[in-house]
Amino acid sequence: MLHFYRCRHLKQITQKCFSSTHTRTDKHAQLPLSRSFVLTELRKSWHSTHSLIGDKNIILMGAPGAGKTTVGRILGQKLGCCVINVDDDILEKAWNMSVSEKLQDVGDEQFLEEEGKAVLNVSASGSVISLTGSNPMHEASMWHLKKNGIIVYLDVPIVDIISRLKLMKIDRIVGYNYGAPITDLLQFRRRYYKKWYDTRVLCESGASPEEVADKVLSAVKRYQDTDSETFISTRHFCSKDQEQKVSTKFFSEAVIEGLASDGGLFVPEKEFPKLSSREWKSLVGATYTERAQILLERCIHPADIPAARLGEMIETAYGENFACSKIAPVRHLLGNQFILELFHGPTGSFKDLSLQLMPHIFAHCIPPNCNYMILAATSGDTGSAVLNGFSRLSKNEKQRIAVVTFFPENGISDFQKTQIIGSQKENGWAVGVSSDFDFCQTAIKRIFNDSDFTGFLTVEYGTVLSSANSINWGRLLPQVVYHASSYLDLVSQGFISFGSPVDVCVPTGNFGNILAAVYAKMMGIPIRKFICASNQNHVLTDFIKTGHYDLRERKLTQTFSPSIDILKSSNLERHLHLVANKDGQLMTKLFNQLENQHHFQIEKILVEKLQQDFVADWCSEGECLAAINSTYNTSGYILDPHTAIAKVVADRMQDKTCPVIVSSTAHYSKFAPAIMQALKIKEINQTSSSQLYLLGSYNALPPPHKALLECTKQQEKVEHQVCVANIDVLKIHVEKVIQNQFIGKVS
Hints:
By secondary structure, this protein is α/β, with parallel strands linked by helices. Among the domains are: 57-224, 3-Layer(aba) Sandwich (Rossmann fold), CATH 3.40.50.300; 371-461 and 717-743, Rossmann fold; 671-699, no CATH class. It has 33 helices and 24 strands. A hairpin with a 2-residue loop joins β12 and β13 (337-341).
């Protein structure tokens, strides 16, 4: 066996042994929390550059021509440690011949096997190891290296790899069929790279080896320093005699808990990660799933979800269940207006973009010895998206995770109601409530904050409550991706060059969708203005214009756009927390005042700060229908009512000096009666199925949504429960569902 040791003494790591996992104590039970706690403790001592790796190896992985050898030498100089080049220091010494000669002698298959065996004989500590491009194709040797190493993937654009290979004197590449394009081999290899890496370094075009080496060091430090990425409640503040870290949570804990114990919402304690302009440019030609993985890797620490596992989740979430391979395509509408189509998922709304992924994230984060009941409130689209997303979990996961979604029984469209009820599966239930969305959402928050009730469920049934609304950080975060992706698509399609500003216009009631655009800007997307579009329930528009959030004498109005028929906007708290420089004490004051006195007023300086980035307006029902009609007549495109509201507001508020991306949050099929009324189609009194087929005969854009057409074919009427607007009644229903799902009995 070949042994390699550090050339210079590096600080030894003191590792602690843990006999139990991290627990949270309350008056009812001790619950196991984030799996990242143990990893955090094991990595705490690795901080300074000199002692960065300790006894661990930094293992550089990537395609031929990625720069592994050059970057490895630079890292060795910076760290003062041994550098091992697998080609030169292991293979050629073991074989007494060049790698190209060996490959020519034994062929691809035998070469991979002998290469793997040679690597299995390597024992290294505190070194930098530069792999060959084919090492990751041998599973046993990669597991051997991974046990004592941090695998860093040097992700170089394929066009750059091809250019470099032309300049390099390489006789043969393992697996390369010289009659096929080299891109096929490089794409094939990427599957293996994605399987093994612990952290990725984007090696954008033009980056020098020294810059890449510095990025490797930063990536390794981040990988080990889990304490640096924590979450706090928007209502978190410390008095002088309190420790700052008391209320912080890891990502996995924030996802599991959903809502903070003080009633606030979880937000990152530090700033959002920011990509450089060169890194963004490297994503212009990437697919949606590739963009999602790179962006979410920056926002989710690998101790919470390893990068390879996160990649698997993303590929599962954005696969064949989306009708469009581009997932969230951007379509030019008219003039400077572009439509971001967010309705190609299985339930036809923008909620699918997060709720096809969030259940997998949630299932990964939860500890193994508890059952979880997800509670969700829906104003129309969330319900079916939640039920659909959680129904796609594995059989074992569905035995431990169940969903109850509460919706206003008479406050959503007929199609939305049919869809929610029809989406009930073996681990998901829909419950109508004789009230509005605001009651449903408030009721869920109060249930979460009822420690007696939640503690009882934990002790009696071993079940913990959590949420799937955008109050849950794991639900909100994936929405950042499509706002960033839409900008990159405009660059890719040649409408703008990278760095040119755009405005975004979002129809919103709960503020989550537009807040995700704010986070995209914080990551480096040059968004100029956020245009908030409201319907007749325009509390958000009034607030942005005045700084006064006033629910007194304001009643919810049912509109053609039910998904934004909301008066209590949960995610506004997250943005105000940001605008107010993370003043948790102020958030506590404001939102307690809203709860008790039904209004609050922010100071003038905060209003001015808010209005630097935001403009807002609202749209009447008549204007909404007129926009649907006029857009169809001029472009052949059918807007759903929510998108029509955004277009009306964009027409009114946007100065046309830059492109505006209008978020289309649902497919028009979900609101067929309103569309037919707008288009002056007389055959309105038909079944949902016949209405959708009639609209499909118009050959309009976007085309009919096949999954929604299938939804209307349900012949049997699916039953669902209806509750009165009473929190105690909702609690009783939640307990009965838990008994049925996890205990198998009803008291």
